[in-house]
Amino acid sequence: MQAGKEERLLVFQKDRWGDWSEYTQHVFVIDPETLTQKNILDQSLGLGITYEKNKDKEEAYISSKELGKLEGKILKNVIEERSRSRRKPDIVTAYYIVINGKLFPLYFEKNRKDARGFFDRVYLPNDRVLKIRKDTVEIEI
Question: Which residue did the predictor score with more confidence, 17 or 10?
């Protein structure tokens, strides 16, 4: 996630080059209280999102004011890069928490595995630990 001009935060990007290469960034909002996870572009979150699109690139931004609406929420930033030269895409994940309208990185352990599959273990400032899977969020006991 990058802060850009006009204090905007990049929350979605899809960029293509050539016949096969693609770069995608998605941001998900995780509520540590309700243990839900939604794409930041989901209309039910009620965020004012600005979209920009040209031939090969799509982007979406939220303002720093809109970021304040996500107080106490976790933002999961997923970047995926695909190319013809690699069989599997490169996937990079990062977690941030919104406190006082600002982003703070969270410590996490990626690609942990249990009987239900792979997950990321995310450590919150209040000493809670979450197991975040692709589609679900759980409290680790």
Answer: 10
